Amino acid sequence: MSNKVFKMLLVACVSVFICMPILAADESGGQDNVLDELMTTIRAKLEYFGWRVRTYESGDKDIWGNQGVGAGGYIVGTPPGTGRTETAMAPQMLTESELQMLKDEISQSMQMVQFQKEQREELEYYSSQIESQLASYKEKFEILGGTTYIVQENDSLWRIARKEYGDANKWPLIYRANQSTIKNPNLIYAGQELQIPQLKVKK
Going from the N-terminus, what domains does the chain have, and what CATH number goes with each? Predict the structure, then answer.
């Protein structure tokens, strides 16, 4: 089974795990447990793709934004000092359909149960980040002046987009502009030459 097919199946099956605790809640009446299980399931899914979720505490607001879990956190990279070696140092780049499925599943969970304010804000934040990446799949752009970028050691499309655009979520622009040479957005190599598209100014 290819990596792409495996990811698609993983993205698709999360709905089953979302529904199961809700059905169980009807018997036990444990609404708080349902919310906790749903949040744990969604966070685990994001972490599988290497996205950072705010499940830890930090008192350093200059680095981490607000304390604890919440909308002011980050969902990319690996939190320092957590020992989560299994979490990718940069997030996996998902296809447009994978991102849309992930967004739909989070929206579905928010419609099925009443989350607490902080949990809802966290889910809305994840959705906004996914939506930002989806928007980059539809963005109109031009490649002007032969702008190129030579991939460095440990680079990823996410890191390159952050360097070139100041917004890591715009990595799909680079992927779309180089699909003739990039078959898998998660696999680029040092020395590879990439075309960096310039965003078209919208009137």
Answer: 3-138 (no CATH), 141-199 (3.10.350.10)
